[in-house]
């Protein structure tokens, strides 16, 4: 494969060394990916750019967000073993920073907003480290968990679309809680898959974990805002 610079299945050494290399580089790239994400959120807040307010129709905004999200994920996966994939991941996280900026700005503007954002951030970090630790010790069947997560992704997407019609606050909270649970399990599944040798691209792994952390943080923000009576 051309530019196959990250394919550790071809690397010399033991399987354990290869898996550790993928996991180490996954964490490194994951940490790096939050820099453009923060930059995107900052630039959006400073310029007042809001993708959602550019269109009068919420369905048009939703369609554009989906097109960006799945289009970038497709391109990153297509280049999962090359430097192009890593670059596209940085572009993707920058865009995701822009998308979360309105939620962050609103959260920071309410009473106790900084505390709410801080609590959500600490809880997100705690969930990540807990699931990462559990991934190293779990004896769960990852194939079964993978099938469960696939079904869960479909259910959550249907619920998101349904709530765009009905606009039910209780359903929105349930969806947010569902995303927290789903994304937490996805982190554990992805890390365990690397440890078991089922994932050989740290770019793909970093993408999955970044999306999971992003979903956990934004969902926790929504839940905490609702509990504080600010949603």
Secondary-structure map with pairings?
Elements: H1 15-47, H2 58-78, H3 83-109, H4 113-137, H5 142-166, H6 169-195, H7 202-227
Helix pairs in contact: 1-3, 1-7, 2-3, 3-4, 3-7, 4-6, 4-7, 5-6, 6-7
Can you characterise this structure?
The chain has helices spanning 15-47, 58-78, 83-109, 113-137, 142-166, 169-195, 202-227. Helix content is 80%, strand content 0%. The radius of gyration is 18 Å and the shape is globular. It is built from 7 helices and no strands. With 231 residues, it is an all-alpha fold.
N to C succession of SSEs: HHHHHHH
Helix fraction bin: over 70%
Give the oligomeric state: single chain
What is the residue-averaged pLDDT? 89
> What are the segments in which pLDDT stays under 50 over at least 5 consecutive residues?
4-14
Annotation, overall tally of beta strands:
0
Question: For the report, how would you describe the main beta sheet?
Answer: none
Tell me the β content: under 5%
What is the approximate shape? Answer: globular
What's the helix count? 7
Sheet/helix structural class: mainly alpha
What is the CA–CA distance across the termini?
Answer: 49 Å
Q: State Rg.
A: 18 Å
Subcellular location: Cell membrane
Pfam families: Bax1-I (PF01027)
Keywords: Cell membrane, Membrane, Transmembrane, Transmembrane helix
Membrane topology: Multi-pass membrane protein
């Amino acid at each position: 494969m051309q530019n196959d610079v990250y394919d550790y299945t071809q690397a010399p050494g033991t399987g354990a060394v290869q898996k550790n290399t993928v996991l180490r580089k996954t964490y490194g790239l994951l940490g790096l990916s939050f820099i453009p994400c923060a930059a995107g959120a900052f630039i959006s807040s400073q310029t007042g750019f809001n993708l959602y307010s550019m269109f009068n129709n919420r369905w048009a905004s939703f369609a554009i967000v989906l097109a960006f999200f799945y289009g970038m994920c497709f391109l990153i996966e297509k280049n999962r073993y090359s430097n192009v994939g890593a670059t596209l991941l940085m572009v993707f996280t920058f865009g995701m920073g822009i998308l979360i900026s309105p939620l962050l700005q609103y959260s920071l503007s309410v009473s106790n907003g900084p505390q709410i954002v801080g609590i959500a951030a600490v809880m997100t970090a705690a969930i990540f480290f807990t699931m990462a630790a559990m991934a190293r010790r779990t004896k769960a069947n990852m194939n079964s968990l993978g099938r469960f997560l696939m079904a869960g992704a479909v259910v959550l997407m249907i619920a998101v679309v349904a709530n765009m019609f009905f606009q039910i606050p209780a359903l929105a909270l349930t969806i947010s809680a569902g995303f927290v649970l789903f994304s937490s399990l996805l982190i554990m599944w992805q890390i365990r898959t690397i440890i078991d040798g089922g994932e050989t691209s740290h770019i793909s792994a970093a993408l999955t974990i970044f999306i999971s952390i992003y979903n956990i943080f934004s969902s926790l923000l929504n839940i905490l805002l609702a509990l504080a009576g600010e949603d």
